[in-house]
Design brief:
Blueprint lengths: L4 H17 L8 E4 L27 H11 L3 E4 L10 H10 L3 E6 L4 H4 L10 E6 L4 H7 L5 H15 L2 E8 L5 H14 L4 E5 L14 H15 L8 H7 L12 E5 L2 E5 L4 E5 L2 H7 L2 H5 L12 H11 L4 H13 L1
Parallel strand pairs: 1-2, 1-7, 2-3, 3-4, 4-5, 5-6
Antiparallel strand pairs: 7-8, 8-9
Bound molecules: iron/sulfur cluster.
Length: 334
């Protein structure tokens, strides 16, 4: 199966409980938990605030766990900053697992041997998600540091050897060569990763860089990614990839992926920080979801982020039974 059975069944239960039983129109699927804005790298596509924070300004573990409770999301993606720099990471992961949530630990992998392996045990609820934006030369360029690719690959291999579930996460930028992306998929398949997430880069308001794509660029590149997805174990759904390739359209579902940061709840979405608040009720009840779903804001113009649209794929499934069958086959046979 492309996604472990327990993640799939818990996600379906969550949808049935919230959508059918409670009749909710909107509810979070994923919590993006950013316990700190400190990082050991300063990648060129990263929002400035996400790697310049001080360690002393990190969130306490109890505050993170309260956010897990408040959001109710079955999946918690721990990112940042670099989460392996967070000193209380073992305690945080234990607390999330105790609450029966699934964790994606999003990391550049440089500190895995020092801060994760041997300190946090493999668990069926824990997936390690390693950032890799290309082969050696490209990835080291994106991370603005030599040797990052080699260390990340060494840590992926070590994680797999120790029994962790390890996937990778690749962002496609304007300069990304799709032949190289295919080479990366071939290489990662060869070392046995459990899945590869590929998504289009998004121009953060705070990143002054010319590496991001327009909607046309995204569609052109993702037509090729769609082809590649038929040969490799990509974890982006085929419907999402068709959307990114411009072959179908969806409204955004920014409420599906809520973001908790060292400044509080960030709204309306992972990418846009119009407002931060410490109150879950204020964030959830006062964000104009209908406006952001419509994608009419100029900041939404070139966005095809999986955090906004994968949930739209799932939400539309009941009205497209053919897609439901396709998705089930894609997951079972992947
Ligand atoms: S379209 Fe993108 S930028 Fe706009 S609300 Fe959705 S996820 Fe955020």
């Amino acid at each position: 199966m492309r996604f472990p059975l327990h993640i799939t069944t818990d996600s379906i239960k969550h949808q049935l409980h919230n959508g059918l039983i409670k009749g909710k129109k909107r509810y979070p699927f994923v919590l993006m938990l950013e316990p700190l804005y400190t990082c050991n790298l300063a990648c060129i596509g990263c929002a400035i605030e996400r790697h310049t924070g001080k360690l002393k300004d990190r969130l306490p573990v109890e505050t993170c766990l309260q956010a897990v409770e408040d959001s109710g999301a079955p999946i918690v993606s721990i990112c940042g900053g670099e989460p392996t720099v967070y000193p209380e990471l073992p305690e945080l992961i234990d607390g999330i697992i105790e609450r029966k949530r699934h964790i994606y630990l999003c990391t550049n992998a440089l500190l895995m041997d020092r801060n994760v392996y041997g300190k946090i045990s493999p668990d069926k609820r824990l997936t390690i998600n390693v950032h890799l934006d290309g082969m050696r030369e490209t990835h080291d360029y994106v991370c603005a540091k030599e040797g990052v690719f080699d260390k990340a690959v060494e840590m992926i291999e070590e994680g797999l050897r120790l029994g962790y579930h390890v996937i990778t996460n690749t962002t496609v930028y304007k300069e990304t060569k799709i032949d190289e992306l295919e080479e990366l998929c071939e290489f990662l398949t060869g070392i046995g990763v459990d899945g590869m997430l590929v998504s289009p880069g998004y121009q953060y308001e705070t990143v002054d860089s010319n590496i991001f794509m327009t909607q046309q660029d995204i569609q052109q590149k993702f037509k090729r990614v769609l082809e590649i997805s038929k040969r490799y174990r990509l974890t982006s759904t085929p419907m999402f990839l068709e959307f990114a390739a411009g072959l179908r359209d969806y409204k955004c579902s920014p409420w599906s992926t809520v973001t908790f940061t060292p400044l509080g709840w960030k709204g309306p979405c992972y990418l846009i920080g119009k407002k931060h608040t410490w109150s879950w009720d204020e964030f959830w009840n006062e964000t104009d979801w209908e406006y952001w779903e419509s994608r009419q804001d100029r900041l939404c113009q070139n966005c095809a982020m999986h955090s906004g649209f994968e949930a739209s794929v799932v939400k539309e499934l009941p009205s497209n039974p053919g897609d439901m069958v396709r998705l089930a086959a894609w997951n079972l046979l992947g």
